[in-house]
């Protein structure tokens, strides 16, 4: 399954600590050689402060060899640096840990009020927060994610958005919450970071940490990859991934420009989500546009079914999808839901073409036995998800006549009227301006 593994692509957009769960998953699934994975882990962890973890990996690789002096020396250096950071921030941490300050932090979410309280009662200096940031970063690099989140939260609360480390602190807080699997808090951090990236442009503020469109695009690309941890673990993640990746043009542009492999996760979310009927059409357009850049069994399954109407090809791709999902860190939990919903979309598409269907033929298309297929169809009818009847003697499924309600007909006929009216208004204004350049629309602002 290494052919369809995306860890090497996704890992380039992740923090080193976020790569470790992916490598552990590959180790369990035995996708790659165990020694190669251990060497990869060692190479990554050597560039963090998790030296004890690096020593453990080295022992697994070389059980009978002595620990390299390089690692031992780095461990001593890290311990000394941590002692220095703790001493430098000791008086600040004592202030934050005092009962009065803890109560104030819990009762107010306003950073300005908290800062005024600290200055008034503890002669607090905002410049001390630089040391707090360094201390929080060192805790994160050592793997103490809980302490990192606590101090990065205070850092974000107290310093202004124009601070040089404000954006880095937001990224660090999100990473730490992901690694602690605090999905509600991680979603809040994701939304806050997304809003910060989207709102801060050079035109709005020259002091923001990034100003060019290219850097903004890079920031969005990193956020897309980090968000996979949140979207595939939070209960609302399936809705949010569709809203963010498919219907937010800025993020869809980033996917199409830099990381089309994210279409695997967007496609899975659409198939397993209840909103699928309303969004599948948009997804198919994107898959077709990007098929020259990226293809895998999951995107090809949709293409076979909705573009080529190749039911045999869709069935074959569905078997491949099962293997892909079972070996994907983010999608393994969606396996059963994906297979169930994929069979349902095959069935629905097939029913749109045929009025009377053989259960035996359907079972073959769905990769099921006739008995299991009949029970599955009965459950669909029973749960009001299918308008059909089963003729048990002939072994047929007879589809009902599908009619749109008057309400649905009205929606279908009027949903594009607003866009047409807007285009007509624009054309009229352009024509009027060309014929009478001296005229100003009545809503126009007069010159002062």
Which keywords apply here?
globular, three-stranded antiparallel sheet, 3 strands, disordered C terminus, mainly alpha
Structure at a glance:
This protein has a three-stranded antiparallel sheet. The chain is built from 24 helices and three strands. The longest helix is centred in the N-terminal third of the chain and has 20 residues, at 69-88.
Description:
Mean pLDDT is 83; it is low at 202-209 and 438-448. With 448 residues, the chain is mostly helical. 68% of the residues lie in helices and 2% in strands. Component of the eukaryotic translation initiation factor 3 (eIF-3) complex. The eIF-3 complex interacts with pix. Interacts with mxt. It is found in: Cytoplasm.
Element-level helix/strand string: HHHHHHHHHHHHHHHHHHHHEHHEEHH
Q: How many helical stretches?
A: 24
Principal-axis shape equals globular
Number of strands: 3
What is the straight-line distance between the termini? 69 Å
Strand order of the largest sheet: 1-3-2
Class per helix and strand makeup: mainly alpha
Low-confidence stretches are 202-209, 438-448
Radius of gyration: 28 Å
Biggest sheet, open or closed, and with what strands and sense?
Answer: 3 strands, antiparallel
Please, what is the average pLDDT? 83
Beta-strand residue fraction: under 5%
Helix coverage percent: 55-70%
Secondary structure elements and their pairing?
Blueprint: H1 7-11, H2 16-29, H3 34-45, H4 51-61, H5 69-88, H6 90-97, H7 99-107, H8 111-122, H9 129-141, H10 145-158, H11 166-179, H12 183-199, H13 213-231, H14 237-245, H15 249-257, H16 263-272, H17 276-290, H18 297-306, H19 311-326, H20 335-353, E1 356-358, H21 359-365, H22 370-382, E2 388-391, E3 396-399, H23 406-414, H24 417-435
Antiparallel strand pairs: 1-3, 2-3
Helix pairs in contact: 2-3, 3-4, 4-5, 5-9, 8-10, 9-10, 10-11, 11-12, 12-13, 13-14, 13-15, 14-16, 16-17, 18-19, 19-20, 21-22
GO molecular function, one term: translation initiation factor activity
Family: Belongs to the eIF-3 subunit E family.
Keywords: Cytoplasm, Initiation factor, Protein biosynthesis
């Amino acid at each position: 399954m290494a052919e369809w593994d995306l860890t090497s692509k996704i890992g380039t957009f992740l923090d080193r600590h976020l790569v470790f769960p992916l490598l552990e998953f590959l180790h369990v699934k035995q996708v790659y050689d165990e020694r190669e994975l251990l060497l990869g882990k060692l190479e990554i962890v050597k560039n963090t402060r998790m030296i004890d973890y690096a020593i453990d990996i080295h022992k697994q690789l070389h059980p009978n060899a002595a620990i390299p002096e390089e690692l031992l020396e780095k461990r001593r250096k890290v311990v000394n640096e941590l002692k220095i950071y703790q001493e430098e921030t000791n008086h600040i941490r004592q202030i934050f840990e005092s009962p009065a300050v803890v109560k104030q932090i819990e009762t107010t979410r306003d950073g300005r009020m908290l800062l005024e309280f600290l200055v008034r009662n503890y002669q607090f200096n905002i410049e001390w927060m630089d040391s707090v940031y360094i201390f929080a970063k060192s805790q994160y690099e050592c793997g103490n994610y809980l302490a990192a989140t606590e101090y990065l939260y205070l850092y974000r609360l107290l310093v202004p958005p124009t601070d040089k480390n404000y954006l880095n602190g937001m990224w660090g807080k999100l990473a730490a919450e992901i690694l602690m699997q605090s999905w509600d808090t991680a979603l809040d951090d994701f939304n806050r970071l997304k809003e910060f990236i989207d709102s801060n442009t050079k035109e709005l503020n020259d002091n923001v940490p990034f100003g060019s469109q290219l850097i903004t695009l890079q920031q969005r690309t990193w956020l897309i990859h980090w968000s996979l941890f949140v979207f595939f673990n939070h209960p609302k993640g399936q809705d949010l991934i569709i809203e963010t990746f498919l219907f937010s043009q800025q993020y869809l542009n980033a996917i199409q420009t830099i990381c089309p492999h994210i279409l695997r996760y967007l496609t899975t979310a659409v198939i397993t989500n209840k909103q699928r009927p309303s969004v599948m059409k948009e997804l198919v357009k994107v898959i077709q546009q990007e098929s020259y850049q990226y293809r895998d069994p999951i995107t090809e399954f949709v293409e076979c079914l909705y573009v080529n109407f190749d039911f045999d090809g869709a069935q074959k791709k569905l078997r491949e999808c099962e293997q892909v999902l079972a070996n994907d860190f983010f999608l393994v939990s969606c396996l059963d839901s994906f297979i169930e919903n994929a069979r349902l979309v095959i069935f629905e598409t097939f029913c749109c073409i045929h009025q009377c269907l053989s259960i035996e033929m359907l079972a073959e298309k769905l990769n099921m036995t006739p008995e299991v297929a009949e029970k599955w169809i009965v459950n669909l009818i029973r749960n009001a998800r299918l308008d059909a009847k089963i003729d048990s003697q002939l072994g047929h499924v007879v589809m009902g006549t599908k009619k749109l309600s008057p309400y649905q007909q009205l929606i279908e006929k009027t949903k594009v009227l607003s866009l047409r009216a807007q285009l007509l208004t624009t054309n009229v204004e352009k024509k009027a301006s060309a014929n009478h350049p001296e005229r100003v629309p009545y809503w126009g602002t007069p010159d002062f």
